[in-house]
Design a protein that fits this description.
Blueprint: H1 11-63, H2 75-101, H3 103-136
Helix pairs in contact: 1-2, 1-3, 2-3
Length: 137
């Protein structure tokens, strides 16, 4: 859909819309930079969290059947139970952090970034057309 730039009848009106567009563009470029950095960190974190979750799941799966076979009160059982508790706690912490830095968060940040990039492209088009209108006046 074309912008109705014919509504602008003076250079001053063109300057006003161009100034507003430039301010919006500046803010969006800052947001783009921030989202790009966050997206890179989130993607790396998502990969790390997924790998660490798999490792903790394997540890829990390996230790759980061993605990009942060890003598009650033995040093081996106490140590194995402690290892199992640590692995379980780590697994819970990773699961909780996955909401902030996991695969879903990475995809949401990528979507946010793409939306900002589309807005930047649209504002650039707007600025080009507004500048052309200003020149025509």
């Amino acid at each position: 859909m074309a912008y109705p730039f014919t509504l602008l009848t003076t250079v001053a009106e063109c300057d006003t819309v161009l100034e507003a567009a430039q301010l919006e563009l500046r803010d969006l470029k800052v947001r783009e930079t921030v989202l790009t950095a966050q997206g890179e960190r989130t993607s790396e974190s998502a990969t790390d969290i997924t790998a660490d979750l798999a490792a903790q799941t394997a540890i829990i799966g390996a230790l759980t059947p061993v605990v009942p076979t060890l003598p009650t009160g033995s040093r081996a059982r106490i140590n194995t139970e402690a290892d199992l508790r640590r692995a379980s706690q780590r697994h819970e912490n990773l699961t909780a952090s996955q909401q902030l830095r996991g695969p879903v968060a990475a995809l949401n940040r990528a979507l946010d970034l793409r939306q900002v990039q589309v807005q930047i492209a649209e504002i650039n088009t707007f600025v080009t057309e507004a500048t052309a209108r200003k020149t025509a006046l």
